[in-house]
Amino acid sequence: MQPVRAIEQDVKDVQDELLLKTASGDQSAFAELYRLSSPRLYGLCVRMLRERGTAEEVLQEAWITVWHRASTFDRAKASANTWLGTLFRNKAIDRLRQRKEQVLDDPDLMNDLEDDVPSPADGAEQSQDYLRLSECLEQLRPQQRRAVREAFFSGVTYNELAARCQVPLGTMKSWIRRSLLQLRTCLDP
Amino acid sequence: MNIPTDDSNSQLRYAEYVLGVLDADARAEMERDIAASDAVATAVALWQRRLLPLIAESVSIDPPEYVWQRIRHQLALAQPPAAEHPAATPLRWWDNLRFWQGLGLGASLLAAACLVLLVVSPRHSSPTAPYLASAITQGNGRVGWTATVDLDHRLVVIVPTRPQAIAQGREPELWLIPKGQRPIALGMIGGDTPVTLSLGPKLLAGFGRGAALAVSVEPPGGSPTGQPTGPVIAKGLVGASSTVIRFSGGRSARPLDS
Asked: Looking at the partner chain, which of B67, B232, B234 has a beta carbon nearest the beta carbon of A60?
């Protein structure tokens, strides 16, 4: 696995550099960053928004924001990977908040989305950070683990999360909060 | 506005914001706090670092090319044409990426070639090959597994084209979907090793025209309900072996054929 890890690190470094160059207005760096990072970010948007058309719109909007806001990227605070992931998730969540009605679970969506809990697409893409997080998630109770994943990928509020998991709101809140604190204890050295 | 402290209430609020469970008003308030306070921004960034790696669990999907064209178009309004050929200066990672993609393609070709050999070399003499095959393809268009069905011996040999990452505590299960019918469980398969499954005699009829194979992610031992409960991560039509050869091998299969 070592060479794969090394390449993963390479890709991350390159991503950081491309984002820094984008911040200085380098259009070709921006294009490279798009090619490198879009499949993952688009996959995330499709999964969260459950609809490709909307996901494309969010993708487009978010990349426009990347171009304009790249100068706020601070390598010391977060990797480009995290910075981009945050920006795209936030865009997707904003879109979900606008769209009051959630798309109901449709069996066809499963085929469309292909993937759900928790099967990383590609062995090469399991970063060290992910492996640590997934180990810590494994230590949570199954229901709470599911709730955290559902929250992360559905981007819905506590209310809706509770409805989806068919538990009272208070229960959901305490599941999530306990899980978050437990994750922090597990992740922080 | 909330003055940042390290107490667990504010920590929870940052975490809930990053996880995405706050409603629109609470999110907006949080965003104001982030903009107003470096300490809050730093605390939130820490939570992002903790939780964002979970993104790795969503599958990469190539966006349609027109999305990039639209972005370029939209930004060109603000930025006069400076870089007409943005991808003209390939970097090292690009070569790497191509290399890895090439590997994937190579594996598919190899798998196709194996299927050709399998079909061409054996001892059978009947004009209708007693083999069927399927390229079980993932959402990203890559073949995840190849399956060869030996109708005479009622066996399915299923081979991953490269190691498939399956979540801890989950296993891939193979399903036969006869045309217009519900999935039928064929058995648990490997994420990184070839597996041979035997087929009950009743199952053979299910491999008629239009049948498909699919792989879903299930608890160890298989779906408890008899129907897929986890996500379907790959699927492919079952055809006479030539379908597969055309699908993934292109012309390279012909010399072996003749």
From this structure: B67
Per-residue pLDDT of A40-51, as tens digits, reads 999 999 999 988
A16/A90 same-domain check: yes
Contact B147/B241 with Cβ under 8 angstroms? Answer: no
| Contact with chain B for residue A59, Cβ under 8 A | yes
Question: Which residues have C-beta within 8 Å of that of residue B121, sequence separation ≥ 6?
Answer: none
% residues pLDDT > 70 (chain A): 80
Q: What domains does chain B contain, in order, with CATH numbers? A: 8-57 (no CATH), 97-257 (2.60.40)
Would an 8 Å CB–CB cutoff place A93 in contact with chain B?
yes
Q: Does residue A30 lie within any of the structural domains? A: yes
Chain A residues in contact with B166 (beta carbon < 8 A): 119
A26's CB contacts (< 8 A; 6+ apart) are none
A38 at interface of B, judged by CB pairs closer than 8 A: yes
Dump pLDDT digits (tens) for B206-223. Answer: 888 888 899 988 888 888
Q: pLDDT tens digit string along A66-77? A: 999 999 999 888
Q: State whether B92 and A157 contact (CB < 8 Å).
A: no
Q: Do A59 and B54 touch (CB under 8 A)?
A: no
User: Are both A42 and A88 inside the same structural domain?
Assistant: yes
**Contact present, B249 and B114 (Cβ < 8 Å):** no
Q: Provide the pLDDT for residue B92.
A: 37
Same domain, A111 and A147: no
Interface test with A, best of B46, B54, B217 (most A CBs within 10 A): B54
Domain contains A122: no
Parallel, antiparallel, or unpaired: how do β-strands B155-160 and B212-218 relate?
unpaired
Interface confidence, given as ipTM, is 0.86
Same domain, A79 and A43: yes
The number of distinct structural domains making up chain A is 2
Nearest to B173 by CA among B153, B194, B190: B190
Optimal mutation site among B52, B103, B137, interface A, most CBs of chain A within 10 A: B52
- A7 reaches B (C-beta below 8 A): yes
- Would the pLDDT of B33 be above 70? yes
The verdict on A96 and A141 lying in the same domain is no
The nearest CA of chain A is from the CA of B121 a distance in Å of 33
Q: Give the separation between CA B105 and CA B144, rounded to whole angstroms.
A: 11
Q: Has this prediction a pTM greater than 0.80?
A: no
Closest CA to B1 of B37, B42, B45, B41: B37
Domain that holds residue A18: 1-117
Name chain B contacts of A106, Cβ cutoff 8 Å.
none
